[in-house]
Write a structure and sequence with these properties.
The complex is a heterodimer. Chain A is of the alpha+beta class. Chain A has 8 helices and 22 strands. Chain B is an all-alpha fold. Classes of the chains: A alpha+beta, B mainly alpha. The interface between A and B is medium-sized, with 22 and 17 residues.
């Protein structure tokens, strides 16, 4: 059995009076049993502070935290049924791998033979059986990380907290450990709360994620929804690589209704969005680099010059500069023969277009319609 | 390669000259301590001699109170080491891991109080310990030695605990360990070089102290080695043989300490440097 974890209007303020910094503001989230839940966001967004509050290493300034039906807000970490893997791995340098993994059981007062048996089992699962007599300093980064995970798993915790566990590893190892953690999640029964600044990790591993920004959870949803229906520009640009292009535009009455004008083109907005756009004259248009297609320059299409082209193997990352000076990043299939400096046309489906409020940056609408391109501005 | 070899050789020669200059007095002390009193002032003075004797040591052990002084010094030193390590470790830990009112002032005051010459504290300490009737006691002497060495020891431990990552302790807490257990099993092993530095410093200070022992211990039975040794220098005669042999015995523990702990001392230096 694992616990659900519930945070109710949690605030955390650091510093003394006068120099207060709100690390986490008004955070409410319910994480269900056995869920793989991720807090993701740029550094300083409050994700690690949130995790530390769940662990009991930090006390919320206000708000409540529940494990299942039990309130744990004031409970010290020793009394919460949790395990945690730290960003800097934090293995005890003077203990062997065996002692490190077995430490939680030793504290629990479990007899030595049983500790040994369990340590050996965990080591086998993590493929570090031959490393048991070594000291952490003798291991590679990936092996150390496995030991840290082993130390967290051995107690069979109800809640497993992972604070950027992969950030200390190199790229190849990171992908490998990602799969490993997912496999472990299927095998163990703990609720996993994961913190990362890497949106790829967040998107590929979690059942649900919270995108954090400036201490607030901007959006809490399934990965697919966060990608497809970002609540605001921060989420839209944070999730997905390369980041979504944001291009200033204007909303103009035209044709039979409203249109958005940007990049020297004008695109009609379907009437179902008109209500939301009432009284708005400016908007920021968002479009993902993958939504663009490079085409030969055609009259009636948005056009520009190739500014920079970076081959990435299967795909190319291309920056196109339009006549008004805007630079747009595009991911296109490689092999397309567009050299730097040449003229090129940009094609995309209006369904891939997002509109954001210019000040609040909230998403106004997305997929403005699949209908026609009205043609370039006169 | 060859150039480096030449440089290395020159460096070794310089080192050997320096070593000879430093080591010769020790050698002379050792040699004199094994030279019979009657031969000591008889020219020619030889750098090597084979007519050694343990006469000086025999006199030292059986004709003087040397063993009493030794016992007193050892008790004072062990007491100073234990109390210093205990107090400095907890204070250093507290300074790094807790925030409390006046913490900054406390830390500054610690270093500031170390800058006072020990002599300046001698009279107030004499008055205080007299009032507490602690003159001619081990407790009084140990407290006096602590008064000089503790500030620096707290400072050392404070620095050491700062380099022990907080996450190590937090990891121990999450594993279920209480604060004291985490301190003992996770923090202290990492701060071991610091603890050894504190122990060595406390020992050296207590072992070599003349001022406080001289002021506080007026009873001959409570003399420590430095005071006791001074009694070998009398108004009419200096018992050089005994001075030399006792000096050898006094420096032995210091030698042993440095010899066996140099690995830790050096690793401590490296931690501080990086």
């Amino acid at each position: 059995m694992s616990f659900s974890v519930r945070l109710e209007q949690v605030h955390k303020i650091f510093g003394r009076k006068g120099k207060e910094i709100a690390a986490v503001q008004d955070l409410s989230v319910e994480i269900s049993e056995r869920e793989f839940f991720t807090f993701v966001g740029p550094s300083g967004c409050g994700k690690t502070t949130t995790l530390r509050m769940v662990a009991g290493l930090e006390a919320p300034t206000s708000g409540k935290i529940y494990f299942g039906d039990q309130e744990v807000t004031e409970l010290p970490p020793q009394k919460r049924d949790i395990a945690m893997v730290f960003q800097d791995i934090a293995l005890f340098p003077y203990m062997t791998v065996r002692e490190n993994i077995g430490y939680p059981l030793r504290i629990a007062g479990i007899p030595r033979p049983e500790i040994d048996r369990k340590v050996e089992k965990v080591a086998e699962i993590l493929a570090i059986s031959d490393k048991l007599p070594m000291k952490p300093a003798q291991l590679s980064g990936g092996q150390q990380q496995r030991v840290a995970i082993g130390r967290a798993l051995i107690k069979e915790p109800k809640v497993l907290l992972l604070d950027e566990p992969l950030s200390a590893l190199d790229a190849r190892l990171r992908v490998e450990m990602r799969t490993e953690i997912l496999r472990l999640h299927r095998e163990i029964s703990a609720t996993i709360i994961y913190v990362t600044h890497d949106q790829v990790e967040a998107m590929t591993m979690s059942s649900r994620l919270a995108v954090m920004d400036k201490g607030r959870a901007v959006q809490i949803d399934r990965p697919k929804n966060v990608f497809m229906l970002p609540r605001n520009q921060t989420v839209a640009t944070f999730i997905g690589t390369p980041a979504m292009n944001i291009i200033p535009g204007t909303i103009v009455p035209g044709g039979e209704g409203l249109s958005v004008r940007f990049l020297g083109g004008q695109f009609r907005i379907d009437s179902r969005h008109h209500e939301k756009l009432k009284g708005i004259t400016k908007a920021e248009a968002g479009i993902r680099p993958q939504a663009f297609r490079l085409v030969p320059p055609t009259p009636g299409k948005v056009s520009g010059k190739i500014f920079l082209r970076e081959p990435l193997g299967l795909e190319d990352e291309v920056i196109v500069q339009t006549p008004d000076g805007t630079r747009v990043k595009i991911v296109s299939g490689s092999g397309q023969e567009f050299v730097e400096g040449s003229d090129v046309g940009l094609d995309f489906e209006p369904k891939d277009l997002y509109l954001f409020h210019p000040e609040s940056k909230h998403t106004l609408c997305f997929g403005i319609d699949s209908s026609s391109l009205l043609g370039p501005n006169p | 390669m060859k150039k480096a070899g030449v440089q290395h050789r020159i460096l070794m020669i310089i080192l050997m000259i320096v070593l000879a200059a430093v080591a010769f007095p020790f050698y002379w002390m050792l040699l004199s301590s094994f030279t019979p009193r009657t031969v000591l002032f008889q020219p020619p003075y030889k750098f090597f001699r084979l007519d050694l004797s343990v006469e000086n040591y025999r006199d030292l052990f059986f004709a003087t109170e040397f063993l009493t002084y030794m016992k007193n010094s050892v008790i004072a030193a062990i007491g100073a080491i234990l109390l210093n390590v205990f107090a400095a470790t907890l204070a250093g830990y507290g300074l790094t891991r807790f925030t409390f009112w006046g913490k900054k002032q406390f830390a500054q005051g610690t270093l500031f109080s170390y800058m006072f010459p020990a002599m300046l504290m001698a009279i107030p300490l004499y008055i205080i310990l007299s009032a507490l009737q602690m003159r001619n006691t081990y407790t009084g002497l140990i407290l006096a030695h602590m008064a000089i060495s503790l500030p620096l020891n707290i400072w050392i431990m404070w620095q050491y605990f700062q380099i022990v990552p907080m996450s190590l302790e937090e990891a121990a807490w999450v594993c279920g360990a209480g604060r004291l257990r985490a301190l003992r099993e996770v923090c202290l092993p990492s701060a071991k070089p610091g603890i050894l530095s504190v122990a060595i410093f406390s020992f050296a200070l207590s072992w070599n102290d003349f001022t406080f022992a001289f002021i506080l211990q007026t009873d001959k039975n409570m003399f420590t080695l430095p005071i006791g040794l001074a009694t070998f220098v009398e108004q009419t005669a200096i018992h050089w043989g005994m001075v030399m042999s006792s000096a050898v015995l006094v420096s032995l523990p210091t030698f042993a300490l440095v010899f066996f702990l140099q690995r830790y001392l050096l690793s401590g230096l490296r931690v501080g440097g990086s």
